[in-house]
């Protein structure tokens, strides 16, 4: 899995409290019902559980710096989320990087992007906006997205610099 996210910690890496704060905000706005919020949280927990299996997938995650700066919930929620991100970064099947704001226009994506390599080697791309998501399976169309993702990996902070930035955020120095 290759993920790029803007603004919020990717769902697969969200703590229950962080995800709940987001769902409760959508209920407050009238976008979803409380039942839909509970369904959303249950579904997210099931997706996250798949990452705990005996042979979890390799995950390459790049988050825009805004994901660390965007406050969700209380200080305690954010502290727990930062700790969870640091723990994720230490996993042997994970690479976590932050794309710093300093990249400016060099950051190739303005929307979240997901690239999945299936067990048979085929690839699926998924990008989403506020309104809808788009899935792509055509290899020729995925080539440019894959290349842009790899360029972003090269420009993003190293995994160790990412953990250092998360540590700064945990200490309130971001």
**Beta content:** 15-25%
Low-confidence stretches: none
**Compute the gyration radius: what is it?**
16 Å
Give the number of helices: 6
State the assembly state of the protein chains.
single chain
Alpha-beta classification: alpha/beta
Please estimate the helix content: 40-55%
Structural domains: how many: 1
Overall geometry? globular
Can you tell me about this structure?
This protein has one domain. Helices cover 45% and strands 18% of the residues. The chain has helices spanning 16-29, 34-49, 66-69, 75-89, 139-155, 159-170; strands spanning 2-5, 59-64, 94-99, 113-117, 123-128, 133-136. It starts with a strand and ends with a helix.
Write the layout of secondary structure elements.
Blueprint: E1 2-5, H1 16-29, H2 34-49, E2 59-64, H3 66-69, H4 75-89, E3 94-99, E4 113-117, E5 123-128, E6 133-136, H5 139-155, H6 159-170
Parallel strand pairs: 1-2, 2-3
Antiparallel strand pairs: 1-4, 4-5, 5-6
Helix pairs in contact: 1-2, 4-6
């Amino acid at each position: 899995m290759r993920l790029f996210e803007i603004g919020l910690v990717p769902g697969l890496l969200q703590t229950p409290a962080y995800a709940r704060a987001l769902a409760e905000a959508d209920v407050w706005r009238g976008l979803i019902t409380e039942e839909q919020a509970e369904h959303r949280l249950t579904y997210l927990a099931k997706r996250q559980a798949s990452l705990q299996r005996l042979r979890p997938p390799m995950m390459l995650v790049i988050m825009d710096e805004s994901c660390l700066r965007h406050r969700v919930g209380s200080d305690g929620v954010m502290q727990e989320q930062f700790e969870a991100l640091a723990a994720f970064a230490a996993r042997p099947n994970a690479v976590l990087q932050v794309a710093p704001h300093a990249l400016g226009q060099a950051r190739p994506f303005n929307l979240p992007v997901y690239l999945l390599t299936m067990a048979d080697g085929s690839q699926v791309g998924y990008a989403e906006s506020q309104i809808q998501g788009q899935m792509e399976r055509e290899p020729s169309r995925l080539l440019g997205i894959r290349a842009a993702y790899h360029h972003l990996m090269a420009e993003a902070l190293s995994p160790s610099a990412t953990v250092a930035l998360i540590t700064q955020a945990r200490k309130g120095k971001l």
